[in-house]
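subagent[fold] <- orchestrator: predict structure for attached chain, return tokens only, no commentary.
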Amino acid sequence: MSAKRRPVSPPIRRKEGRGRPSTPFLRERILRSAAELFAESEFDVVLIDEVAAHAGVGKGSVYRQFKSKEELYAAAVINGFTELRREIRAALAGCTSMREQIATIVGHSLRFFWSRRQFFALLRDPKALRPSQERQYQAQRNDLSRLISGVLDDGVKRGAIRPGIDTRIAAESLLGMMRGINRYAREYTTPERAVEIVTSIFLDGCAAR
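subagent[fold] -> orchestrator:
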């Protein structure tokens, strides 16, 4: 008699990779939640637990993506530059004069940075940010500066800005004015009040005519 064949068990399939399964768009969810919370409250007030809860993930998931709250905060601000430029471009489409264009740029930029002033303190701390984040910030900031200089170049062509002016330096001057107000004038002004002053000084100067 022939021996009965034993049933062959199906091969055991090993799971590829180890650890927890990845959550789709996890980093994007965390960054979006962090941006919303940091826009509403000061840096020191927002807790990582709150960011995690707002994103619907565990606290450990946040720290696996970002080593510290400073790193998360910087990433949220840098990531927000793209949205800021998109908002400015969309708003500029409805402007009919150079003064309205500059006021639009100033208004959107001041409001964006008003609740994110801690970011500039982190930039001055070499231990707070990774070199890659500093490079990302510089790239995003340069894009914003080019957007402004492009508006000024168009103004030169239309006769709204005097010819011969270096629009790149003018754009950096405008950015410098806004940064200075964010850092030093917060105690006695608001973004809404500052828009008119910055626009007037930038376009008309301070000298009496």
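orchestrator: received. Logging for downstream: Residues 131-158 form the longest helix (28 residues). The CA atoms of residues 144 and 182 lie 17 Å apart.
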